[in-house]
Design goal:
This protein is 53% helix and 10% strand. The protein is mainly alpha-helical and 158 residues long.
């Protein structure tokens, strides 16, 4: 386990350096997730996707969140094609537009769309991309859960 952690920290250091984070400002282990997110925002989502292969190589199993409104991460078919055999995608349901402002039917359609793209062959955990805030109508949260139960059984159907 110690060697795996060392490899993860070396990979994290490489990603942060590539993102322009000064070594003196390197994150403490407990703050790594937050700092990766900010560093990758500065480098762009494409930089995060390039670094994703490093994380896969050290044994990271899940990418959370799949934020469908963020740059190249919104190209779900390309994401699935490039990394889908090697990592589980978690998230995919937008918390900035679909959940707070869509109708329950919009949410249902979005869950189905994301599942049809990321689900084939496995490796898909549907959920909100970030914390569900209090501006999200409860019926939309229920629509998301109901749609996962309806469409989330293998084999997936159209």
């Amino acid at each position: 386990m110690g060697q795996l952690l060392l490899l993860a920290l070396e990979s994290l250091g490489r990603l942060l350096t590539e993102a322009g984070v000064d070594e003196a400002r390197a994150p403490l282990l407990g703050s790594a997730k937050g700092n990766i997110g900010h560093a990758m925002s500065a480098a762009g989502v494409a930089g995060m996707l390039a670094g994703l292969q490093d994380f896969i190589e050290i044994g990271v199993d899940i990418l959370n969140p799949i934020q469908t409104s963020a740059g190249s991460m919104s190209d779900l078919p390309a994401l699935k094609k490039r990394f889908g055999d090697n990592i589980v995608f978690c998230g995919g349901i937008d918390t900035h537009r679909i959940l707070p402002y869509g109708s329950p039917e919009d949410v249902r359609r979005e869950v189905r769309r994301v599942m049809q793209i990321l689900g084939p062959g496995g490796g898909c955990m549907i959920g909100a991309v970030h914390t569900v805030m209090n501006d999200v109508p409860p019926e939309n949260v229920l629509a998301m859960v109901d749609a996962v139960e309806e469409f989330g059984r293998y084999p997936l159907t159209d």
